[in-house]
């Protein structure tokens, strides 16, 4: 290595070509990099979905879900199996274990599902699907004051055109009319004509056909024979003959049935800014580019705008590329500000050419990183951008240390090339060790299995690549540029004045190290045991404060968004019209007289359309949702919390609500509340009792709101039972239930392709009858002999409670408990730990089979910390091994690693000063901080060893080494801190979830600097003192010459 350094230092052409090659390679690679909002996580879940239309949740669970679970028991590499049964559908989700082969698992699951023979006949074919994460990137809104069918026609055309674009592969539709033609025949008309629902269904199936029936070969070739009389629209179905009477009269379907084409039976609203609308959401698939996708869609809409019907507008909103650009612009501007600050800081202490080349090292390191990202297909996303932010102040550390050493060597007489080679070779070993230990520190991010951990992988790639290229720059390029016999010094009067100022500043730092720091550290060394005890006490104090919850923490910080989302789920038993009333209240609270838009428009003096460009609203069944967009201009002067508070206050209390959420966070899109977990027990009664006791305890916890469980989503079910008289007529429950199902749910008699979609043709009772219990009582049942008997004569009904979405985990019945919370008061993890230590422990003793399974953020946090504990242990062992081999010492690596936990103390202090909770991103910042402090400790200990090797006693060498490396250590810490100050002081909402990571890094490095300059010398002194005493007890001929080192 020493020869390579010397060769590059002496060969300007080679060094400059290497530099130019890296920079040009980076410039070429940068525009080729894919862009994503967030990195797409590798799929590790497989779902099995089965539709059983018309069946209730209990029927679905008994006939679909449980057989699927039984069939899938024992599938290899399944970590967790969860299921949910609902009206007409079952979904079983299998989470794969780490390292599982996805394709083998898919094949095994598909084979077992295909082997199930107990499924009901009326189910749809089961679907086995790998759950791939696709992010909604941009919404295209088709809106206008027209009928739904006209909107649907335009939306279908736009969707078809979007899918024809090169980079658009997935477009989800929201607000489209149902793909159903409902043919409704009353009981009165059926009996009047002697028909049954089955005979009507058969007539439709027999008449509406499109069948190829063979071919005829003759002298002219082959002629295909086809019977094509398929009906596609309501008037065509109305013309189908259902019955031909004896007098020749033909009864058409339109004579006895009401035919509804695409009409929703459940109350349905989908509006954009008050107009009926349909939304087309373009999704980003793995490997696609967000900027190319959104630009293609926008270009298409601009060119197609003149072709849209008058009165219909097609616009975009929820465009994630806009938010991506805003965050990218924020990070770049703050990074450039940090870069300028770093340069001027270096200029205060280093000569101009040294400061320039050290700062230019950042450009080289980043260019090399772009090359690596392009080679290994890593994208530019918000996480990888954080990686660049983290290394902004780190990549100059090695260049500062080497540049400082070269500068000192040249000042002490080793002129030009000789001084450059000497300085680079002297510190090549500790610099290489520090780079590889820093890479090892962030390596665990590549191995995390949790979704949160996987998203952080890009950080480790960016940090590792940047550090490797910075190593190339500081060892192979920088020495060449500092090898001149005469430093670059412009002959300007202002520059000479600046040099005098710089000389004073630099000399002040040198004098501070000589006359302030060195005497101070000598005093500390005289009471080294007391000094070490004080630092150890500080460490114990702050770690204990964190563990006991005195420091706020929030593992999964809410990623801010400019979209405010208001969601309400109302009870199944709420009166008709409740959904529409709540929807209108939510809309009026925004756009009505005295609403949110008007209030803030008056307060700010800005147009409401500028502050709030768009909103949409959605009602379907029991779910009411509304989204409000805040512009960047609004976010600059209005806090989203103010808007949400005003909005909620104007809507008021919603007594019919089962769940209410109002957030401006991307994290609200995850399933479940802020706190969620599953409870199981040996039987249903004990399970219900346990859940009530848990919820009672939760109500006493300050900061928890909206405490509920999935039993709150209940309704009543009519349970049909046969009377003894039914046996006399040859009726069974199966015969009776099939006829009731055909009338009240209906039967899909055909599926036809139309307008690029599949339409279901259903035959059933009119809606009014299906909503009236008397229609069931008055229904006539066909007997096996062909007679008719009133329903009431052979059957009776009773009301029973019905759980709408029963769930199971690993084959066990569970109840899911959820709660929303104010994370400024309490965190999910703290709350869960409190429940574990109180009510959970009590219930484990009193309720048989009681257990709790964490879900959502709690589950993610437990997985993450389990991984981080395991991998951090491995990393520390690996770093210790690298340092031990490099330093040829068993003890010195332990001294170097002592600074790492003190970085956490600095992070806690920083979060307390900035009044923010410690989160996942805080821990990511600590990984980078560990690399910086290890680097500083390595440089210091290498200097101590060098002085000892020159014959100086360790008690003299330790303070002298501290003095010699004081400026380099201070500069590396200050450049890291100063480079990140702009982002730490950023007030825009785009920077909110970046700041915890920056705070951990900056304050962790600052505090660990005191450890490097004070505690590490004391620990080294203690180590050498102990070894010296051991040495004194040995015969002189057996003594060791290099204390603490194994040669």
Give a structural overview.
The protein is α+β, with helices and mostly antiparallel strands and 1047 residues long. Among the domains are: 1-20 and 327-488, Multidrug efflux transporter AcrB transmembrane fold; 45-130, 2-Layer Sandwich (Alpha-Beta Plaits); 135-179 and 267-318, Alpha-Beta Plaits (2-Layer Sandwich); 509-556 and 888-1047, Multidrug efflux transporter AcrB transmembrane fold; 561-669, Alpha-Beta Plaits (2-Layer Sandwich). It has 36 helices and 30 strands. The strands form seven sheets. Strands 1, 2, 3, 4, 20, 21, 28, 29 and 30 form a nine-stranded antiparallel beta sheet that branches. Strands 5, 6, 13, 14, 15, 16, 17, 18 and 19 form a nine-stranded antiparallel beta sheet that branches. The radius of gyration is 36 Å and the shape is elongated. It starts with a helix and ends in a 14-residue tail after the last helix.
CATH superfamily of the domain at 509-556 and 888-1047: Multidrug efflux transporter AcrB transmembrane domain
Look at the structure and give the mean pLDDT: 87
Helices, by number, come to 36
Q: What's the CATH topology label of the domain at 509-556 and 888-1047?
A: Multidrug efflux transporter AcrB transmembrane fold
Quickly name the level 1 CATH class of the domain at 509-556 and 888-1047. Answer: Mainly Alpha
Which percent band covers the strand fraction? 15-25%
Q: Ranges with pLDDT <50 over ≥5 residues?
A: 1038-1047
Number of strands: 30
Q: Note the main sheet.
A: 9 strands, antiparallel
Helical percentage: 40-55%
From the coordinates shown, what is the CATH architecture of the domain at 509-556 and 888-1047? Up-down Bundle
């Amino acid at each position: 290595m020493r020869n390579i350094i010397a060769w590059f230092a002496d060969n300007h052409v080679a060094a400059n070509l290497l530099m130019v090659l890296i920079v040009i390679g980076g410039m070429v690679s940068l525009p080729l990099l894919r862009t994503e909002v967030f990195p797409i996580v590798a799929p590790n879940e497989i779902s099995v979905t089965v539709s059983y239309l018309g069946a209730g949740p209990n029927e679905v669970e008994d006939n679909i879900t449980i057989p699927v679970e039984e069939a899938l028991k024992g599938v290899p590499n399944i970590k967790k199996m969860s299921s949910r049964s609902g009206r007409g559908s079952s979904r079983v989700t299998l989470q794969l274990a780490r390292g599982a082969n996805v394709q083998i698992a898919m094949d095994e699951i598909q084979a077992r599902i295909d082997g199930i023979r107990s499924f009901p006949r009326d189910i749809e074919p089961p679907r086995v699907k790998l759950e791939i994460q696709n992010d909604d990137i941009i919404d295209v809104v088709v809106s206008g004051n027209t009928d739904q069918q006209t909107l649907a026609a335009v939306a279908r055309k736009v969707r078809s055109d979007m899918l024809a674009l090169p980079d658009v592969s997935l477009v989800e539709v929201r607000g489209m009319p149902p793909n159903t033609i409902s043919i409704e025949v009353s009981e009165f008309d059926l009996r009047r004509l002697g028909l049954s629902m089955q005979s009507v269904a058969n007539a439709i199936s027999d008449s509406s056909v499109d069948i190829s029936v063979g071919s005829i070969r003759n002298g002219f070739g082959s002629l295909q024979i086809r019977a094509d009389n398929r009906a596609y629209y309501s008037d065509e179905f109305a013309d189908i003959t259902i019955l031909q009477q004896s007098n020749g009269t033909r009864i058409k379907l339109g004579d006895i049935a009401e035919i509804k084409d695409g009409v929703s039976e459940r109350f349905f609203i989908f509006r954009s800014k008050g107009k009926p609308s349909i939304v087309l959401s373009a999704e980003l698939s793995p490997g696609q580019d967000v900027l190319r996708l959104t630009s293609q869609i926008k270009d298409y809409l601009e060119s197609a705008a003149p072709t849209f019907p008058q009165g219909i507008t097609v616009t975009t909103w929820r465009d994630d590329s806009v938010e991506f650009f805003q965050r990218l612009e924020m990070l770049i501007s703050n990074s450039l500000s940090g870069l300028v600050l770093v340069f001027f800081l270096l200029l205060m202490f280093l000569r101009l050419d040294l400061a320039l080349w050290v700062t230019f090292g950042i450009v080289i390191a980043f260019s090399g990183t772009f090359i690596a990202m392009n080679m290994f297909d890593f994208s530019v996303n918000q996480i990888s951008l954080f990686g660049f932010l983290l290394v902004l102040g780190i990549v100059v550390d090695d260049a500062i240390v080497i540049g400082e050493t070269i500068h000192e060597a040249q000042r002490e007489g080793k002129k030009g090339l000789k001084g450059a080679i000497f300085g680079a070779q002297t510190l090549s070993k500790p610099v290489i060790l520090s780079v590889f230990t820093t890479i090892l520190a962030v390596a665990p991010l590549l191995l995390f299995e949790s979704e949160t951990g996987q998203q952080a992988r890009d950080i480790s790639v960016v940090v590792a690549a940047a550090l490797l290229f910075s190593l190339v720059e500081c060892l192979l390029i920088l020495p060449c540029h500092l090898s001149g016999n005469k430093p670059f010094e412009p002959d300007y009067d202002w520059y000479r004045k600046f040099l005098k100022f710089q000389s004073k500043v630099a000399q002040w730092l040198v004098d501070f190290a000589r006359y302030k720091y060195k005497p101070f550290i000598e005093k500390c060394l005289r009471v080294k045991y007391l000094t070490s005890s004080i630092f150890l006490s500080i460490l114990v104090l702050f770690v204990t404060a964190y563990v006991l919850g005195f420091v706020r923490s929030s593992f999964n910080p809410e990623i801010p968004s400019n979209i405010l989302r208001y969601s309400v789920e109302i009870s199944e038993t709420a009166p008709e019209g409740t959904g529409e009333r709540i929807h209108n209240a939510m809309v009026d609270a925004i756009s009505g007289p005295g609403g949110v838009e008007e209030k803030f428009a008056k307060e700010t003096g800005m147009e409401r359309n500028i502050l709030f460009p768009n909103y949409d609203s959605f009602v379907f069944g029991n779910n009411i949702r509304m989204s409000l967009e805040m512009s960047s201009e609004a976010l600059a002067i209005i806090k989203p919390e103010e808007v949400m508070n005003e909005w909620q206050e104007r809507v008021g209390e919603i007594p019919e609500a089962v769940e209410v959420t109002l957030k401006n966070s991307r994290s609200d899109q995850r399933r479940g509340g802020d706190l969620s977990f599953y409870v199981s027990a040996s039987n249903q009664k004990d399970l219900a009792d346990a859940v009530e006791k848990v919820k009672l305890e939760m109500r006493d916890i300050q900061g928890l709101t909206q405490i509920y469980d999935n039993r709150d989503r209940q309704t009543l079910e009519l349970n049909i039972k046969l009377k003894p008289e039914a046996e006399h007529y040859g009726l069974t429950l199966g015969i009776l239930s099939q006829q009731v199902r055909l009338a009240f749910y209906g039967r899909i008699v055909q599926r036809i392709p139309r307008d690029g979609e599949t339409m279901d043709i259903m035959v059933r009772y009119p809606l009014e009858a299906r909503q009236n219990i008397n229609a069931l009582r008055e229904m006539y049942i066909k007997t096996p002999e062909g007679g008719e008997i009133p329903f009431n004569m052979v059957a009776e009904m009773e009301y029973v409670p019905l759980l709408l979405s029963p769930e199971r985990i690993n084959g066990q019945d569970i109840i899911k408990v959820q709660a929303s919370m104010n994370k400024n008061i309490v965190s999910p993890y703290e709350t869960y730990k409190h429940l574990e230590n109180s009510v959970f422990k009590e219930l484990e003793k009193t309720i048989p089979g009681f257990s709790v399974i964490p879900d959502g953020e709690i589950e993610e946090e437990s997985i993450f910390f389990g991984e981080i504990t395991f991998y951090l242990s491995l990393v520390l062992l690996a770093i210790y091994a690298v340092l031990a081999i490099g330093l040829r010492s068993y003890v010195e690596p332990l001294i170097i690693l002592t600074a790492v936990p003190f970085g956490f103390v600095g992070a806690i202090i920083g979060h307390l000063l900035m009044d923010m909770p410690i989160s996942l991103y805080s821990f990511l910042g600590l990984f980078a901080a560990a690399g910086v402090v290890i680097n500083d400790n390595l440089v210091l200990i290498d200097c101590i060893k060098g002085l000892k090797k020159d014959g100086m006693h360790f008690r003299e060498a330790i303070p002298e080494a501290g003095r010699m490396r004081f400026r380099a250590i201070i500069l590396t810490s200050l450049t890291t801190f100063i480079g990140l100050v702009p982002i730490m002081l950023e007030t825009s909402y785009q920077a909110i979830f970046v700041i915890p990571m920056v705070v951990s890094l900056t304050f962790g490095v600052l505090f660990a600097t005191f450890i490097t300059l004070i505690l590490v010398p004391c620990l080294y002194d203690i180590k050498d003192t102990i070894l010296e005493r051991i040495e004194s007890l040995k015969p002189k001929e057996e003594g060791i010459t290099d204390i603490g080192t194994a040669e």
